[in-house]
Amino acid sequence: MQVEVFAGEHGETLLFAGDFTAMPRIGETISRDAGGYFEYYDVTDVWYREDGQSGKFNACVSVKLND
User: Fold this and answer.
1) d(CA 12, CA 26)
2) Closest C-alpha to 1, from 48, 57, 59, 54
3) What is the rounded average pLDDT of the residues 6-13?
4) 28 pLDDT exceeds 80?
5) 11 or 5, which is more confident
6) What is the pLDDT of residue 4?
7) CA separation (Å) from 32 to 42, 43, 62?
8) pLDDT for the residue 55
9) 20 contacts 32 by C-beta, under 8 angstroms
10) Would the pTM of this model clear 0.85, i.e. be above it?
11) 34 three-state secondary structure
């Protein structure tokens, strides 16, 4: 499943889009390979947004970097 990962409380900045086996849930931690080390993010919000052109719904999550 393709999921768009956003930073910020209201999903202001797209960080990356990734393939997940299941939709991440609020409170879970996801990781991303950042070139030799991993960045860990806490999921703070989950939603689906409609692509205005195709009418397709995209899975989205907001995250906070976990230092």
Assistant:
1) 18
2) 59
3) 83
4) yes
5) 5
6) 95
7) 12, 13, 14
8) 85
9) no
10) yes
11) coil
Q: How far apart are CA 38 and CA 65, in angstroms?
A: 11
Long-range contacts of range 30-38, CB-CB < 8 Å, 24 or more positions apart?
30/5, 30/61, 30/63
Beta strands, E only, 1-67: 2-7, 13-19, 29-33, 38-50, 57-65
Residue 32 CA to its chain's centroid (Å): 11
Residue 58 near residue 49, CB atoms below 8 Å: yes
Is the Cβ–Cβ distance between 65 and 39 less than 8 Å?
A: yes
Q: Residue 58 phi/psi, 5° resolution? A: -110, 135
Other C-beta atoms within 10 Å of 8: how many?
Answer: 14
**What does the block give as tokens for 48?**
């689906």
Overall size of the chain counted in residues: 67
